[in-house]
Amino acid sequence: MMSNLSVILTQNKLTGENFNDWKRNLLIVLNFEKHSFVLTKPRPPTPTIDAPDREFVALERWDNSNLRQIMDNLEEMFGEQTIQAKTDAIKGLMNCRQKIGTPIKEHMMKVMAYLSEAQANGAEIDAATQLVMVFQTLSKDFDLF
What we know:
This protein is mainly alpha-helical.
């Protein structure tokens, strides 16, 4: 039986051009269904003979899922889109400047969207660097900061 969330994947099939959006939808469904562990955690080590049953169960559950292999193959096939999307988001952020008269809230939403897109596509930007990047996008009215 399919969950309501898995309908997202049924209605938004992978076409190649939509890999980043499809992957985002897949991760939402996997998180909800509690299967994302295969993509986010390494394979558990082989338990010793006297290890508790839960260690054997965890290893078996991980090994029975071929999701990691499928995702690795899809990343290999469509990973260029992720790199391009990350590059585009960072370029957009670096070129973003608050226009005079634009409300700060509107500008910050735009900046946050660029940061979110970059991070969703694998960019690792620490908080201090994000702050510097944000300040660089602000108009001269904020030079005192």
